[in-house]
Amino acid sequence: MIVLEPDENEILEEKSVMIQNGARVEDGKLHVTNKRIIYEKIGERRLRRAEASKIFLEIPMYDILNVSSAVPKMSLLTKKKLAVEFRKDGDMQTVEFEIRKPEGIVDIIKNWATTSKRDHEDRLKQEDQERFRRELEMAKAKSNKSNVNVISFGRNGNQPSSSNKDTDIVRDNKANLPRPAETVEVCPECGSYIPEGSKFCPECGYKVKKS
């Protein structure tokens, strides 16, 4: 028994024989939905064990290239054939299903295949756009991180940021502040600070007397 997706509807379910590359797979069911063509091998009970049903072939509608029907010329009792050309792993393959009335289902499959291809292409485009958006966001994040480093350390390593400039100004201001009273000499003539080690006052020229 096949499991349908929430938005998947079954159009056809019929006992059928699948023919591919000259090999016949009998005792199966052909399922046609708005999304897939499925051939299910019907399970069977044997004397000592039971064989479960399994999906023998599954073709997404967007991989279908062509579909047609054929009527055998030799016998009126022989079932008609539904031929499906599809793409798998980059190669074109053909499979036939023996069913009672393939004519009515051919146009339905063609219509669903066209719709499915369009939806599939739109979905791929959306996935590509989403992937591009994520990559762009990652690139922006990396770029912003690099810009932070540039701002912090300056371009070419010699242009500090405004925050660093402020820090440098504070450091310069601290360097220009007068030292503690015990280490600072004051000119007795003009009251200016005399740099340590100076012999004369830089303002009035007073000669410093060394003790």
Given as residue ranges, the uncertain stretches (5+ residues, pLDDT < 50) are 151-155, 160-182
Distance between the termini: 111 Å
CATH superfamily of the domain at 10-127: Pleckstrin-homology domain (PH domain)/Phosphotyrosine-binding domain (PTB)
Mean pLDDT: 79
β content, as a range? 25-35%
H/E element order: EEEEEEEEEHHEE
**Tell me, what is the CATH class of the domain at 10-127?**
Mainly Beta
Q: Can you list the strand order of the major beta sheet?
A: 6-3-2-1-9-8-7
Helix content: 25-40%
Q: Count the strands?
A: 11
Number of helices: 2
Rg over CA atoms, rounded to whole Å, is: 44 Å
Secondary structure class reads alpha+beta
Q: What profile does the largest beta sheet have?
A: 7 strands, antiparallel
What is the molecular shape? rod-shaped
Can you tell me the CATH topology of the domain at 10-127? PH-domain like
CATH architecture of the domain at 10-127: Roll
